[in-house]
TrEMBL record:
Record key words, sorted: 4Fe-4S, Iron, Iron-sulfur, Metal-binding, S-adenosyl-L-methionine
InterPro entries found in the cross-reference section: Aldolase_TIM, Elp3/MiaA/NifB-like_rSAM, rSAM, rSAM_sf
Record organism: Thermococcus profundus
Protein name, as recorded: Radical SAM family protein
Keyword Iron-sulfur belongs to the record: yes
Gene3D superfamilies on file: Aldolase class I
GO molecular function, one term: metal ion binding
Pfam families: Radical_SAM
Co-factor requirement: [4Fe-4S] cluster
Domain Radical SAM core: 53-272
Amino acid sequence: MGIKMRWEDFARSMGVEPQILENREARVLKEFVMDLKFPTHCQGCQGLDLSNPNPVHHPSYELTPACNHDCIFCYSNVAVKLGKAPKPGYYGWENPYAITVSQYGEPLISPRIVEVNRMLRERFPNARLDLQTNGSLLTEELWRKLDFDLVMISLDAASREKHLKITNADTFEAVVNALRIVGGDKSVRSVVRTIFMPGINDEDIPKIAELAASLSVDEMMLQPLTIHELNVERLKRAGLDFERAESVRDFLKAAMEAKEYIDVRISGCQLAVYRTMDPLTLFSAKRVGRDVAPAVKREKTKL
């Protein structure tokens, strides 16, 4: 009859103290994940509830699929090319916790942005209104006409040259100015939204965090990259490290670097999952972020 031995005793019988088998970096990553707060934008989202088998994003009001940027990673561009971009309108339900304007295209292109903003405020007075924009068209004059609770401005580079490479638009200074405008208005929650693209912008991420903090921006929302098939060649040419783009460890290490400068947060649905992982699983996990085309899971509703 065999004798069962605890793994700690077995390790010692082999001349190895159990603590040597631990991974210090894995423990640090796990502690970092447990200390992170959910992004303000994600609060109230179904994706934070892991018991929900089919969560959907907050409702959104889509204004236009058009954009003045042509980003090398953009899901909205893919949706337009495949004829899958949503038509303008409200995608959601009654009594929403939050509404995003908008998840496709650049909403500030639309001449209806102020009108729609006011209509949503009147129609859903208890909902948090989030604006998702590349920021390049935001001016002081327009800002005075808008009424949002949270503004997410996309910035994936810390220099004009790198910004041009990623967005194919020479708008870096305009985006920085938009961060300055919303960062200076403490009646609104200001967020810089950055996509982790190792090999392209990993060295920029702490610089973006430092820049945003210097402009009094409240939060950085760091998001992993979803690689859509139509963008693969563009990302290759830009230098994306595809293996590291799927590494949870590398993603979290980038967030840790940014944390030195700003209140950094990671996608809420990802954070909810990472918190359930043990340190070693988290350390070695891969996020397979591949897709053909994005899809809106919410129904279009007439307001």
